[in-house]
Amino acid sequence: MDKPSIKAPGLKFRPRSGSWAAYWVPSPEAVRRGYPSGSATLTQYIAAPEMLVDACSRLQSDMLAWLDGLRRDPLAFDGTIGGVLRIYQKHEDSPFHALKPGSRKPYVVYLRLLEQEVGDHRIEGLTGLQVKRWHAGWAQEGARPAAAKMRIAVLKAALTFCIVAGHRSCRALRDDISELRLPAIRSRSLVATADQVRQAIAAAHALGRPSLALCYAVQFETALRQWDAAGQWYPIEDAILCPVVHGRHKWAGLEWRHISEDLVLRYVPSKTKEKTGVEVVIDLRLCPMVLDELARVPGDARSGPLIVNEVTGLPYTDPQFNWTWKKVRLQAGLPTELWSRDLRASAVTEGRGGGAQTDDAAKVAGHTRPRTTADIYDRERLEAHRRFATARLGRRGPKPAV
């Protein structure tokens, strides 16, 4: 396919799989002076040259204004979607700053995309129907429903905060969006069997990643979330107390100190720590995969974070963990659609399939309210886990020979 002949300030074309991708690129001078916005993807406008030229012109004008010293006050509401998004990110009281690292990352990505795609639209001229048309375009005819849903969620969150911050004109659009009936996304149904988890554990060992083998065992046997088992890295300025500090970030997650001498794990998941304070209590003696992996760890290595990257000597970052999971999944021959995060749902599915009561499964997953006293609360959760684990083990056949 021939390269498009469209001309516009800052417009660049790059070949891509038999077609062309369009980008607006800031000038070298702007980049050199620290212009805060990078390249903008405009491929969606290639079939509409006028819209492509208009998008480039707007981006170019914004860059030139910045170069002339006309920097925007990030908290000044200019009546546009872009203004809403900036206030949501920059205001010191915005709930954006309370997002956990795992949630903040996609928010940052989609805030940037929304700024590029619809940031210049004025709030007062928008209706729910326009947003519905945006959603259809973002979903790409059903090919990317999750991406479309996430954009809507981020946009609603930003509009809601701006309403609270006193910008009442945002209410009508936020309420219109709330009334939309958008296509639902199918819930994930893929689960891993105990044999598949054993395959993942074996693959992790084959790749020289025993710590990940332990992590997968913990995720599956205890039903802890991935970001609790492996931990999370937070910005250094975050208020959370963390035992590990490295550069401008600090880490919190499952540590060896959370496992008692009698192999009972007690841990308050990050998702409930600031809300209900619900603690999960797990009898690891009924978690054979975890016991096998714990037996491999020498006594002098049982301190600090439970899961440590063998290459860096520090807990895994999200990109490191996800990249290594793909290698493990390939090595183990597991479905490419299977996520490491699916191990938690797989644990609950196995327990319920083995006859575990819903209340026990909820306690193990950390979903119930705190009880009246800590002593009763602990005993209930420990017995709940024992019943839950016994139901799961009854579903498994004999352990295969290694």
How would you portray this structure in words?
There is one protein chain. This protein has 402 residues and is mainly α. Helix content is 47%, strand content 8%. The protein has helices at 28-32, 49-67, 81-90, 101-118, 128-139, 145-164, 170-179, 194-206, 210-222, 226-229, 270-273, 288-294, 318-332, 342-353, 358-365, 374-393; strands at 11-16, 19-24, 40-41, 232-235, 244-246, 249-252, 264-267, 280-283. The strands form three sheets. Strands 1-2-3 form a three-stranded antiparallel beta sheet, with helices on one face. It has a three-stranded antiparallel beta sheet with strand order 4-6-5, with no helix packed on it. Strand 1 (11-16) and strand 2 (19-24) form a beta hairpin. The chain is elongated, with a radius of gyration of 25 Å. Residues 369-379 have low confidence and may be disordered.
Strand content is 5-15%
Distance between the termini: 55 Å
- Count the strands? 8
Number of H- or I-type helical stretches: 16
* Oligomeric nature of the chains: single chain
Domain count: the total is: 2
CATH topology of the largest domain: hpI Integrase, Chain A
The share of residues in helices is 40-55%
CATH superfamily of the largest domain: Intergrase catalytic core
Query: Looking at the structure, what is the overall shape?
Result: elongated
**CATH arch. level architecture of the largest domain:** Orthogonal Bundle
Q: For the largest sheet, list the strands in their spatial order.
A: 1-2-3
String of helices and strands:
EEHEHHHHHHHHHEEEEHEHHHHH
Largest sheet: 3 strands, antiparallel
Average pLDDT number:
87
Task: Report the top-level CATH class of the largest domain.
Answer: Mainly Alpha
The Rg value, from CA coordinates, equals 25 Å
Q: Which blocks of ≥5 consecutive residues have pLDDT under 50?
A: 369-379
**Class inferred from helices and paired strands:** mainly alpha
